[in-house]
User: Fold this.
Amino acid sequence: MEHEEVLLIPRWVDAPRVTFKYGLGQEFIDVLRTLHKLGLDRTEKVRVGDVEVSPRDVVAACLPDPAALGDRMRGKTCAGTWVKGVRDGAPREVYLYHVVDNEWSMREYGSQAVVWQTALNPVVALELLANGTWKGSGVLGPEALPAEPFLDLLTAYGSPWGMREQ
Assistant:
């Protein structure tokens, strides 16, 4: 899975290696493994009666619309940045994270936690640009701008963040 952070962070942060990963629950991983074992994730078409269709397209057509699942989902989503490196000659590890409870985001905003979390970050960034707190020209990722105003405004919007240092 590719994500823009892999390309943008090295522009502004001296980082020899940047990766992007998703963390999935065991039940979801088991379902994906089962689909794979059955060949239902294949894109090569198979003949079913008079029609040719890929097994993956059939599975996708049978799944519910993700937009309609929000009120049935339970739990929290966590997006974070885990940084390992050396600062002032000493090893350092920091995990900066943002957790959103799905039941809360559905109740307050009528949106799934992942959707709400994804939408909130650009809203905060745009507000910082509009009020002049963030300035710059060209294509700038958030890592090119001061983090504190962003984190403060995130909290002000009712979405606190956390940090764990190891």
